[in-house]
TrEMBL record:
E1 component of the 2-oxoglutarate dehydrogenase (OGDH) complex which catalyzes the decarboxylation of 2-oxoglutarate, the first step in the conversion of 2-oxoglutarate to succinyl-CoA and CO(2). It comes from the Bacteria. Residues 476-650 form the Transketolase-like pyrimidine-binding domain. Gene3D superfamilies: 3.40.50.920, 3.40.50.970. Pfam families: E1_dh, Transket_pyr, Transketolase_C. It comes from Chryseobacterium polytrichastri. Transmembrane segments: none annotated. SMART domains: Transket_pyr. This is Pyruvate/2-oxoglutarate/acetoin dehydrogenase complex, dehydrogenase (E1) component. GO terms for molecular function: oxidoreductase activity, acting on the aldehyde or oxo group of donors, disulfide as acceptor. Keywords: Oxidoreductase, Pyruvate, Thiamine pyrophosphate. The lineage of its organism: Bacteria, Pseudomonadati, Bacteroidota, Flavobacteriia, Flavobacteriales. Its cofactor is thiamine diphosphate.
Length: 810
């Protein structure tokens, strides 16, 4: 039976006293870290600092109700909380400040994130899941204000799902769904839409979520009254307060940041509501101070008047905590007991300073040793080249004059020396070149690894299983293929669930989930509100807790609502933790062609450019789409799968091995062989390209048609270049705007695959007009590439080279 903090607090006075003094000491350690951290930035040893001073007491109180298996989704000021749950040490705090790339010394991000961005490691070194119920968990922080909120919803909803969903290994992710998800956000950031959308969804879903709002009265320099309709967010949220007997709404608790006993009570009550009743709770922590201002970028004296600054000094949480401790006394068996004397607290203060300084010193020395070792391994090899070029001695002299050396300075020296000695084939230069290649590989891993999965489950490793057809295979609507494949998926993978607008009761707007809710229940096949950002957030959070969510965004155009979360959160999860966390959510959507301005847009270039870190899969029909779902559910990479909006009623032969066949990522398919020109396309446009190719045959032009299938990753075996080598001409056909996805495809083929070597004509791109497509079939015809457009423009390539054989059309 899960217990709460309230239920476990029968302790002796001595234990009570020890807890208070431990909290005081930890608060002082955290404060000293903030003070010293700022000094390290201002003295040039670190680039930037943003700290949690002023928020120590509420975070200590929050940590007391945070149990193994719980998750936090927060922002960059929760260092005291991270210390209190043993997710941070003094050493790792400063290692992050210095951007130390060691996972051992800086496990949150291996130096990839600014300080204050915390994370625990959910994965073993091989990418497999740890037992998340045996540790306290922090989902990796992000900087975009309120960007952490949608993910919080999914982290909380996972607990509710685990109350009814079990599968092999699920015990590593949840103990009967009793975990709570904790969120933290600055008061000014509650003006962001993501905050309201998340809280609204949480109140509707009734998930175990506690959101702490740190209210210091400002958003950097802008006061609260200028941020929202009302200065008091608790008052503004009063309409969200649940009514007795109703299964909607949330609990709202307001408490002062400097009132230690009240904070303990507030978080104890919040935990009771969330853990025992699965009710979302908002803890509005008011009268928060910021002793050092917003960050090292400036001083808060610029925007706070003397009265405010004096108040902050007086109501500093640690000052008030010290006062409370010194004023506390109780009579036990006729004897007055106190918690501590002034001298004892002074001693704790001094010990905290020494601990922080000692931890900082070790962190700095460890970080510097990495650079010193690099210098010692490289400098002698550069010095060996002094006789081969007179400039090298100057380079070495400039390098040695640097007061503080960074890795970039070492690499700059090596690369300039190699440049200066180009054309020289000496043993000394070869030694330096070998060393350069060696150290470059190390730094490539330090700074560029884990954008995608590097585990055995990465999508590229999933083997192709072809669809099997027999005489009994039926011709059915495309939507029936994907529906019946989902049926097999839900049967095969009990950890899989799908949710989205109209996804549940009516089986999605195109009937691709018809009957699935009735068969598998409304937990696994669920309707959502119209709120794309938090549909994605549900997916991210649940995937971080071992579930396999399919987050449905009804139309491709609507994906713009959640593009921020895709770009800033989902796409960077593995990268920003250097393989410490993953979120293999599948984003299901549909789009392209026929339906007008808001239903047939093609924001593919935006997705490609903004979401590196997410696979982008563009099947040409629903059988291919089904195969991609089967592939990705065996992978631990996140992906977006774009189904063809105009394919649901088109006939396809249904494979006999539904739920089993796979479509490999990064693998193109030649759907028509030809010898004169290579036509490259994807998705819904493929059908139109095939029509055009047949027309070109009648004009004496043999076109090879290639369906890309997967934009990220793209043609891993360079098969398109081989096609161009045979045909000597290349046309990329796309329904995105000019210079959009076609530019990406062209860069991949010409630059990466070096296919420019085989061209006898200029490469050609045929794209849509730059405006959104107008409505209906005529709108599609005049807005996006038609078969006529393709035939005429491809024909013109041949007219240019042989006008007699291919006379001009116009």
């Amino acid at each position: 039976m899960q217990t709460t903090y309230i239920e476990t607090q029968q302790i002796s006075f001595q234990d009570f006293k020890n807890q208070i003094l431990e909290d005081y000491k930890l608060g002082r350690i955290s404060r000293e870290m903030s003070y010293l951290g700022r000094r390290e930035v201002l003295t040039g040893k670190a680039k930037f600092g943003i700290f949690g001073d002023g928020k120590e007491l509420p975070q200590l109180a929050m940590a007391k109700v945070f149990k193994n298996g719980d998750f936090r989704s927060g922002y960059y000021r929760d260092q005291t909380f991270a210390l209190a749950i043993d997710a941070l040490t003094v050493g790792s705090f400063f290692a992050q400040l210095y951007a130390d790339t060691s996972v051992e010394r800086e496990p949150a991000s291996a130096g990839r994130q600014m300080n204050g961005h915390f994370a625990t490691r959910s994965l073993n070194e091989d990418g497999s899941w740890k037992d998340l119920t045996a540790q306290k968990n922090i989902s990796s922080d992000i900087s975009p204000t309120a960007g952490q909120m949608p993910r919080l919803l999914g982290l909380a909803q996972a607990s509710k799902v685990y109350k009814s969903v079990k599968f092999e290994g699920s015990e590593k992710f949840s103990k009967e769904g009793n975990e709570v998800a904790f969120g933290t956000i600055g008061d000014a950031s509650t003006a962001e839409g993501h905050f309201w959308e998340t809280l609204n969804a949480a109140c509707a879903l009734q998930v175990p979520m506690i959101v702490s709002i740190w209210d210091d009265g400002y958003g950097i320099s802008v006061p609260t009254k200028n941020q929202r309709a009302k200065a008091d967010i608790a008052e503004m949220l009063s309409g969200f307060q649940r009514n007795e007997g109703e299964n909607q709404g949330c609990e709202i608790i307001q408490v002062k940041a400097w009132d230690y006993p009240a904070l303990l009570d507030a978080y104890a009550r919040a935990e009771q509501f969330a853990r025992m009743e699965s009710v979302p709770v908002v803890v509005h922590v008011i009268e928060v101070t910021q002793p050092q201002g917003h960050s090292t970028s400036g001083s808060h004296e610029r925007y706070k008047n003397e009265e405010r600054l004096a108040w902050e000094s007086q109501f500093d949480g640690l000052v008030k905590f010290r006062e409370w401790i010194l004023n506390y006394s109780i009579e036990i068996e006729g004897k007055e007991e106190v918690i501590a004397t002034i001298e004892e607290l002074d001693a704790i203060d001094e010990e905290a300073k020494k601990m922080v300084k000692a931890g900082q010193k070790i962190a700095w020395e460890s970080y510097q040793k990495t650079i010193t070792d690099l210098v010692h391994s490289v400098l002698p090899l550069v010095e060996n080249l002094k006789g081969q070029n007179t400039e090298i001695e100057n380079y070495i002299g400039q390098f040695n004059k640097l007061v503080s050396k960074a890795k970039k300075d070492v690499f700059h020296l090596v690369r300039r020396s190699l440049l200066a000695t180009r054309g020289t084939n000496s043993a000394e230069r070869n030694q330096l070149m070998q060393k350069y290649n060696e150290i470059f590989e190390v730094e490539k891993d330090n700074y560029s690894s884990h954008l995608y999965s590097q585990s055995q489950w990465k999508a590229e490793n999933i083997k192709e299983i072809k669809p099997i057809y027999s005489d009994a295979s039926e011709d059915v609507d495309g939507r029936v293929v994907v529906r019946n494949n989902f049926d097999k998926i839900f049967e095969k993978y009990p950890e899989t669930l799908v949710f989205g607008e109209d996804a549940g009761n009516i089986g999605d707007v195109n009937q691709g989930l018809e009957g699935m809710q009735e068969k598998y229940g409304d937990v696994r096949v669920a309707d959502t509100g119209i709120r794309e950002a938090t549909i994605l957030g549900q997916g991210i959070g649940m995937a971080m807790r071992g579930l396999r969510p399919i987050a449905e965004i009804q139309y491709l155009d609507y994906i713009l609502y959640c593009l921020q979360g895709m770009s800033d959160d989902l796409a960077t999860v593995q990268y920003r933790t250097k393989g410490g966390q993953k979120s293999p959510v599948i984003i299901r959507t549909r789009g392209h062609r026929l339906e007008g301005v808001w239903h047939s847009g093609s924001p593919m270039a935006g997705i490609l450019n903004l979401s590196k870190g997410i696979l982008v899969l563009v099947p040409r029909n629903l059988t291919k789409a089904a195969g991609f779902y089967n592939t990705m559910l065996q992978s631990d990479d996140p992906a977006v799968i774009v189904e063809c909006l105009n394919g649901y009623r088109l006939k396809e032969k249904q494979p006999d091995n539904l739920g089993e066949f796979t479509v490999p990522v990064g693998k193109i398919e030649v759907t028509k062989e030809g010898k004169d020109v290579t036509l490259v396309t994807y998705g819904s446009t493929w059908r139109v390209v095939m029509e055009a190719a047949e027309e070109l045959e009648k004009l004496g032009i043999s076109a090879e048609v290639i369906d890309v299938q997967s934009l990220i990753p793209f043609d891993l075996t360079n098969e398109i270049a081989e096609s161009v080598k045979r045909t000597n001409r290349l046309v990329v056909i796309d329904e995105d705007v000019e210079g959009g996805t076609s530019a990406f495809i062209l860069q991949q083929i010409l630059e990466k695959q070096k296919a420019f070597r085989f061209l006898d004509s200029d490469p050609l791109t045929i794209a849509a007009n730059d405006h959104r497509p107008a409505y209906a079939s005529d709108g599609d015809y005049f807005s996006k590439p038609s078969s006529d457009d393709m035939v005429e423009r491809i024909y013109s390539l041949f007219n240019e080279t042989n006008p007699e054989k291919y006379p001009a059309i116009f």
